[in-house]
Design a protein that fits this description.
Blueprint: H1 2-11, H2 21-67, H3 79-89, H4 105-124, H5 141-154
C-alpha cells in the first residue's frame, strides 16, 4: 500500500503525499535543509560583521593610543584592558575597570567614566569633546561612535 502510494506521488500525483512517508520526509527535509542553510549563512554573516567591528574598534583605539604616546597601545586588542587603557588615556586610574564587577550601578558608573575619558581624549586630539556623547544617542549611537573614533584615530586635525 505504501509503496504504491509513493509511486503515485513520484509519478506526479501530489495528493498522494499524505499517505507517503518518503514524500513527507523528502518535502520536509528539503525545506528544513534550505532553512538550515539560510540560518547558517545568517550566523556566519553576523560573526563576520562582529569580527570586523571588533578589529576596526581595536585598530582605531590602538592608533589613538599610539598618537597619545601610551606605553602599551596593544592593550586595545584585549577587551577589559582596552577599557582600562581608555580610562588611563582620559586621566583616570586603570583600576576603575573593576566597577564592571558591581552589577548595574558599577556598570553605569564605568560607562560615565568612559564617556568622560573619551571627552578628554578627543579634546587632547583637538576634536570636540562632545563627540564622546555619540554613544548615548538612541538608535544611531553605536554607528556614530564608530565614525567618531575613526575620525579621531586617522584624520589629522589642524
Amino acid at each position: 500500500m505504501v509503496f504504491s502510494t509513493c509511486t503515485e506521488f513520484f509519478a506526479g500525483n501530489e495528493s498522494a503525499i499524505a499517505n507517503c512517508p518518503i514524500a513527507q520526509n523528502f518535502a520536509g527535509g528539503f525545506a528544513g535543509g534550505i532553512a538550515g542553510i539560510l540560518l547558517a549563512f545568517g550566523i556566519l554573516f553576523a560573526i563576520t560583521l562582529l569580527a570586523a567591528l571588533y578589529i576596526y574598534h581595536a585598530l582605531a583605539w590602538q592608533t589613538i593610543a599610539k598618537k597619545s604616546k601610551h606605553k602599551n597601545p596593544w592593550l586595545a586588542w584585549i577587551p577589559f584592558a582596552s577599557s582600562a587603557m581608555r580610562l588611563q588615556l582620559g586621566g583616570f586610574h586603570w583600576a576603575w575597570i573593576f566597577l564592571i564587577l558591581i552589577p548595574i550601578l558599577g556598570w553605569v558608573a564605568l560607562f560615565i567614566l568612559l564617556i568622560i575619558s573619551h571627552w578628554r581624549i578627543f579634546e587632547a586630539r583637538k576634536y570636540p569633546g562632545w563627540f564622546s556623547l555619540a554613544q548615548i544617542v538612541p538608535k544611531i549611537g553605536t554607528p556614530l561612535y564608530f565614525v567618531v573614533i575613526g575620525f579621531v584615530a586617522w584624520k589629522e586635525k589642524k
